[in-house]
Design brief:
Rossmann fold, 6-stranded mixed beta sheet, globular, alpha/beta
């Protein structure tokens, strides 16, 4: 109930409970790093910073919301939480949070990522969670999909349906979502609030902020405190660029419409940019960005023209990720590589123009359990996926018929 209240709250700020802050202290504040070596390699006058969320126990930004969600459920006496996960970052974060507060965690992991990233499952199991590939035979939704397509690679929309079905079938279980919704982005604003104070210490303010988007939580958490300055007229020229896969281009190709957040149409309708709740995205390695919809908050900001969107191909993101690793040393998640790609592109534009802009990149997580993805790239076996226009058209034809 507390999360539902936060979802619809009109308050500007909501206090972080001391019990949540105590867990946050394990890894927060996260570092803000100046990418001097990358700047030198690019020969750019731009200043490049990255907000480094990799230092959390799960290796990403996801525990910022997993911890409070587990805490509020614990306070209500909930014994078990079901959820979905794409690349496994959310599932592992909730598994960690469940271990902190003594809650059983059940994770439905998108099948293609379950197979590509086996060590994410091991992380979840180490923290005591159970993880199964989706579609599974544990739910009617999963069984129906397997009967229709035994080789189905899965999608976040499908995994959400399985997790919701799991939750509504049991009295001891609540469902938890790791992105998209308002309360999730609220929890993630700790990223941007910290980054603002750290940028002040560096005597800098970003001209451009870049974040990757699937559902929109890590980028939303980074950008919204800064956008408050833009809306107040303090930084009217601030640019925000949101980066998504070219094979699942929700913002750049999808309509702004009411749609379900899951394939089986069990969630409430959300006003968002969408490729259709029935869309099955291609199996790119950035599993956390394979989602048909976008956060209503992010969608609204994009509709108002306050943020930009850009779609990039898989190969060019890994080009950027490897360049980042060979200069800054850190191996980034495939999702994060999308933000790095556009951050590098903007720095190269500064090289051409001679402008010394300040660029802030949201570094949402590490890629240390994504080495099969890097192996595919380094061996020349990684491919791009075309935008499946016909599949999207088919999915969009099934949008719910509601008013504007």
């Amino acid at each position: 109930m507390e999360l539902i209240k936060q979802e619809v709250s009109q308050d500007r700020y909501i206090e972080i409970p001391e019990e949540v802050q105590d867990v946050y202290r394990i890894w927060r504040p996260t570092p803000l790093v100046r990418a001097y070596r990358l700047e030198k390699a690019l020969d750019t006058p731009a200043k490049i910073f990255f907000k480094f969320e990799d230092v959390s126990p799960a290796g990403s930004h996801k525990p910022n919301t997993a911890v409070p969600q587990a805490y509020y459920n614990k306070k209500e006496g909930i014994k078990r939480i079901s959820t979905e996960t794409g690349a496994g970052q959310w599932g592992s974060a909730l598994a960690f949070a469940g271990s902190v507060f003594g809650i059983e965690i059940m994770v439905y992991m998108v099948k293609v990522s379950y197979e590509q990233k086996p060590y994410r499952r091991i992380m979840m199991e180490t923290w005591g969670a159970k993880c199964v590939p989706s579609p599974s035979n544990l739910t009617k939704t999963g069984r129906d999909m397997l009967a229709k397509d035994p080789d189905c690679a899965g999608s976040l929309g499908l995994a959400i349906s399985e997790a919701v079905e799991d939750a509504v079938s049991r009295d001891d279980t609540h469902y938890s979502l790791g992105s998209v919704l308002n309360h999730v982005l609220l929890h993630q604003t700790i990223i941007g609030e910290e980054a603002q104070k750290q940028m002040e210490k560096a005597d800098c303010y970003p001209d451009i902020i870049v974040g990757c988007v699937g559902g929109g939580s890590n980028a939303g958490g980074l950008i919204t405190p800064f956008l408050k300055d833009k809306l107040a007229g303090k930084k009217p020229r601030l640019r925000v660029i949101l980066v998504e896969p070219a094979s699942c281009p929700t913002l750049t190709k999808g309509p702004y419409a009411y749609d379900f957040g899951d394939m089986a149409m069990m969630t409430p309708l959300l006003k968002m940019y969408t490729l259709g709740h029935g869309f099955m995205p291609p199996p790119v390695h950035a599993g956390g960005l394979r989602y048909h919809g976008m956060s209503p908050i992010i969608s609204h900001l994009y509709k108002l023209g306050l943020v930009e969107a850009r779609a990039v191909n898989q190969l060019e993101t890994f080009d950027a990720g490897v360049q980042f690793a060979r200069t800054e040393g850190f191996i980034s998640a495939p999702e994060t590589n999308h933000a790095i790609r556009v951050g590098i592109d903007e720095a190269l534009k500064c090289k051409e123009s001679g402008e010394a802009k300040t660029i802030l990149i949201g570094h949402s997580g590490h890629g240390l359990v994504d080495m099969s993805s890097y192996q595919a790239y380094l061996s020349g076996k990684l491919t791009n996926y075309e935008y499946p226009e016909e599949l999207v058209k088919k999915a969009l034809a099934d949008l719910p018929k509601v008013g504007a």
